[in-house]
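B., you asked whether I could sanity-check this one before it goes into the benchmark set. Here's the sequence:
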Amino acid sequence: MPIPNEATVRSILNEVRDQVVSAIQNAWEDWLASDFNGVWRCKRSRANFVWEQIIDHAHAALLDHGDVHVIDGNETMKFLVQDTVLFRFKKADETGKSSNVATQLALAFHDHEQDLFDLPEVQRVEVVYKLNRLETKIDDICVVARDGDLIAWEYSLLDAGEGVVPLPMPEPMPERPAAAIVKLKGAADGRKKRQT
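And here's what the prediction gave me:
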């Protein structure tokens, strides 16, 4: 199957957009409110905690949705929407790439020539959350299609102004007057002497 078609994925995932965004935002709030926030030293532990919470929230919100099938297995959970779009949740870096242990299954998820999960015709994408530079809040929630190690396309699930707060622009620096040129007495005379 070719790389997922963005227009198709957008129209289908738009049906569950609110539930997906809420699952991620609620999971992050769970992390902030937890007794573990600030205690665990490993980012991987935080990512695991948030992922588990995302799955719980998404499972609860989408389980009874008529067009969504929850597929549990291989130590992950995937969501199939309208028998066409298969997605999984991940944390991503600022470029939109998720990091995975390079198992055969993880690599195959982004190789659209391979049939996975006995679902040969589905379009596989990731729903990712991106943190701000200080990793204190979610900056964006995106749908990402990859082609192997490359990002084929990406779009945000957050509406303009919702969830992503633009940082204020820094005040422009006042113009500094040009520094006065200081000439040493006799410096110009030395140059003239060298030229003659």
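One thing to flag: Confidence is low (pLDDT under 50) at residues 160-184. Otherwise nothing jumped out at me.
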